[in-house]
Amino acid sequence: MEKKDIKIVLLIFFVALILRIGFILTLDNSIDVWGDWWDELGWKLATGQGYWVNNPFNPEGQIFYAWRPPLFPLLLAGIYSTFGHSYLSAKIFLAILSSISCLLLFFVSRITFSSSKYAIISAFVYTFYPPAIFWTGYLAPVTCEIFLVLLVVLLLLIAERKRELLLFALSGLVVGLGVLTRSLFIIFIPVVFLWLICLHGIKFSFFTTALFALFCFLTVSPWIIRNYYIYGRFVLSSTEGGIVCYIANNPNSIKENSGCWDPTGKDLNLMAEISRMNELEVQKYFYKLAFEFIKENPLIYTKLVIDRFFRFWKITPHTFSGPGENYKNYHVIIAFLTNLPIFILALTGFLFSLKIWRNFVLYYLIVLMWSLPIILFFKTVIRYREPLMPFMIILAINGLKNLRKGKNVQ
Known about the structure:
Blueprint: H1 3-24, H2 38-46, H3 71-83, H4 87-113, H5 116-128, H6 130-134, H7 142-162, H8 165-179, H9 188-200, H10 202-231, H11 241-248, H12 268-274, H13 279-296, H14 298-312, H15 329-353, H16 361-377, H17 389-409
Helix pairs in contact: 1-4, 1-5, 2-3, 4-5, 4-7, 5-17, 7-8, 8-10, 9-10, 9-16, 11-13, 14-16, 15-17
């Protein structure tokens, strides 16, 4: 990397960090408005209380030991063990992680475009991208997911160029960390296989993906062994998937403005049914109800899937949701002004990229296979697509690059 590029990279990092910490300081950092068990689990680990939550469906029911994947609480536990139960310290850590993500996007883009110029533009766009700044202010794993996705992609791009098996193994390890953050990271195994087939054929792809998957599962194995010791069954990531699937696929989902219906505390018969179950039984039961509904109501299910597709790719957030309180009108305006040009240019960039599809096929596969399970089976909120937005920005920059080239030709 040239000396000029080093200065620009440092500038990107510090501008990103200043923006993120500046936003964090506008918040009330004495409280955790997000909740969702992350802070609770992190503090329990930091204070030696173990990794568990009270039964979310029945306060007097059996304790849940795998309700949330462990990596993000482990990170919080490390911060709390060092700085005390400080939400501000945890958020500053997220700000640093997000600022590093801007640098990762720079290096990913430079490989993609073979140009520092367009890599700098990509990184600066993400430096100022409002949701990337916004999520550093809340104790949710979104920022961690984005960082891990970009790190995996960078390692894969370098590994593929150098045909370096050690780097493929390392990228598998990072995907394992991703699975311990969110189970959806498992999609990287078929993504890598299909990507390598497109570039190198079946033999190299099979062996390399097997190595990649091996290191992924080695990373996850301590969590799997721990869960097997508790329940005597295989648990890859966490157990909340059943209720999330049922919320999105039940008789009341289509009637709700949010496109989902949470039975917790509302359907007393259902709550009575699961009150004596352990968490694996609860997970299995909710999945069973969801898939029975899908099977018996294909037309309603189709409507729900279409609805979830548009919700997933919605330009502005829903004002009835948000961390701690509903999103404000200014959130909607900022999102509209930011996402609309990115999405238009990304579509343009996608069409231009088809001419050199091998340079972009990894991004196609990630966007498709990350979004598809969510749209098909789970409740959809805009934050679930945030790990994909760096690749939408890459496509947008490709659109800008080609439009500019066409203008110069004229």
